Amino acid sequence: MKIALGQINPTVGDFAGNAAKIIDFSLRAKSLGAGLILFPELSVCGYPPRDLVERVSFVQHNREAAEHIAAETHGIAVICGLVTPAQVETGKSVMNSAALLMDGRIKFVQSKMLLPTYDVFDEMRNFAPARSQVLFPFCGKQMALTICEDAWNDKHFWDRRLYSVDPVEALVHAGGNFVLNISASPFWANKRELRHDMLATIARNDRVPVAFVNQVGGNDSLVFDGSSLVFDREGKVIAQGKSFEEDLILFDSDSLTGEMHEQIEGEEASIFSALVLGTRDYVRKCDFRHVIIGLSGGIDSALTAAIAVDAVGTENVMGVGMPGPYSSPGSVDDARALASNLGIRFEVLPITDIFDDYKATLLPVFKDRAEDVTEENIQSRIRGSLLMALSNKFGSLVLSTGNKSELGVGYCTLYGDMAGGLAVINDVPKTLAYRLSRYVNSRKPVIPQATLEKPPSAELRLDQKDSDTLPDYEVLDAILEDYVEQAHSAEQIAREHDFGLDLVKSVIRMVERNEYKRQQAAPGIKISPKAFGYGRRFPIAAKADI
To answer: Biggest alpha carbon distance in the chain?
Structure first.
């Protein structure tokens, strides 16, 4: 029998829109001869719903949407993710479940056993875990229906397992001979390779086919890449879905042959696609159409603008140059050239006179004190205020342009360059920003060569360079990756990279001192295993043991 994977992009809380997608994909699959179609985890309500599941109306609308889908999909069985009521004694009101819809009704429900609580996941906060799972018969097979994390505890793959039970192993031992896994598995660099290897290990060791359907799209900081897969009993991929776009994939459950749709390859291409998708969906799902970007002539704003153009189109992007007293003519020219190359609107709003007015106003209070970082921050905050004024006037979303390196050590200004509704590249280290920019230019040369070649500078004082304050970015990014993403100690980082221990400790102190800035930053798009945001929860008022 033909089985389909419905790799869709749901919106959290959009029950009508999500149901319409599920019905449309189901009827398309039916017309192509499929007898069963799988949709992602919580596809009826969208993932992650977080505390919305505490609202009785949310749970009720979710149930009504599932019943509507069942009524509209006669002739094909549908498996989709939804929220179901939990037993009262669990202390949680709902469960994360999968439903089999057949013959106009909900025929079978299976709930998730393993609820992750690491990184960006906090499912134990919202859901009760299932106590057990059972098989269901379909097309002559005993189907083992699992939900995302239920497949992430295989003893043959993980050296250290997070859970004491393995739902897949239990279902296979009970007679399951076909594993179905509906997922909302977020993207980060190299995550697809990890997923492939893990699922292939399950198929190979348990000698069962494995069908995995993943959500696609951006929801807040998370990007879901799709990249759905089907494996035969030897762990070979026999069907796969596209990356970073909706897709319908069919395979035969008996011959184990299926459609192989092209996936995006390469780290830079994958990360860029994730950033574009995350930006597009954040803008669209928050009901914006246009975006505004401050263009400094530097690499970060250039990369952000290139992402924005791919995400929402040239006609919906405005670039704003805001030269100040220390801006070089070349930076203004580079910003203008970038805007021209991208085909976006470009406005110039000089800030020198405004800056002089600020200084004159503050002079009676600041007298006898030399200029310092205070005046640098004033320039940044003037620019932030202008961008937000444009945002208010035109109803556009400001995209802030700071990168992960700057955010990590606090080389950014609250209410200044941090102003905005989405921090597009705040999980992109500076060195990766250069790699991504060269990737952009490999497709079409839009970022000026001077932007790629000149030393990074905030241009907030005369002849300023980032290297005046920070280590070289190659060194800084190596320290930040090991400390933030790997939680290595200062001594371990210094030893493994042959860096001076005092240098490493000084960087770590900057990271710890600037937690207050990161907790006020706009949400960003996660593309690394450990991004700043709600996946990395540290106190502000604390003394760090460096």
So the answer is: 86
CB-count burial class (<10 Å; 0-12, 13-18, 19+) for 448: buried
**What domains can be seen in the chain, in order of their start residue?**
2-256 (3.60.110.10), 270-466+512-518 (3.40.50.620)
Is 465 among the residues known to form the active site? no
Instruction: Take residue 116 and report the two structure tokens written for it.
Output: 């992750």
Paired tokens of 52: 């919305």
Catalytic residue among 92, 112, 404, 517: 112
Backbone angles phi, psi at 378, to 5 degrees: -60, -45
**148 noted as active-site residue:** yes
pTM value is 0.96
Residue with tokens 């009826």: 44
Catalytic residue from among 2, 30, 41, 376: 41
- Kindly report, residue by residue over 227-282, the tens digit of the pLDDT: 999 999 999 999 999 999 999 999 999 999 999 999 999 999 999 999 999 999 99
Rounded distance, CA 118 to CA 130, Å? Answer: 19
What type of residue sits at position 71? Answer: A
Out of 45, 80, 148, 412, which one is annotated catalytic?
148
- To the query of whether residue 112 is one of the catalytic residues in this protein, the response is yes
